[in-house]
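Handoff note, outgoing to incoming analyst
You'll be picking up this chain. Sequence as last confirmed:
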Amino acid sequence: MVEKKTKTAAKKTAKTTVKTTAKKTTRRRAQEEALVETMVQCMQEKKGQRIVSLDLRKVSGASFDFFVICEVDSAPQARAIADEIDDKVYAGFGEDPLHTEGYANGEWVLLDYGNVLAHIFNKETRQHYRLEDLWGDAGLRVFEEEEN
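Most recent structure output, in case you need it:
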């Protein structure tokens, strides 16, 4: 009798764990997608150009879920976009980037928010590294530039 109760309790625990994991996964995905949208809005507000997102969730070997990419005309513009993303993501999600790179020179600024990375390139650097081609299996979404 005790064994039967233990098996029943174990099944209930397993079902609860699966449901909780599914809810967390759904919540995480929704938060990542909202993070992508926030980054895109920041890039648009600061006149980033050729804005795209790469959905890497189905790409084998990818360590991240999303890249959000834009290009800029100058280092000050790259820093302005990075600052805007930093401010808006903190205000909306309570998160600071886990890592940043390239802020000082502004040729390629990277903001790492775990599974979502923002890449802010000057035109020459973006053409050189061609992340969209490198991750050609990723889902590509192109965003229109915001008009005033």
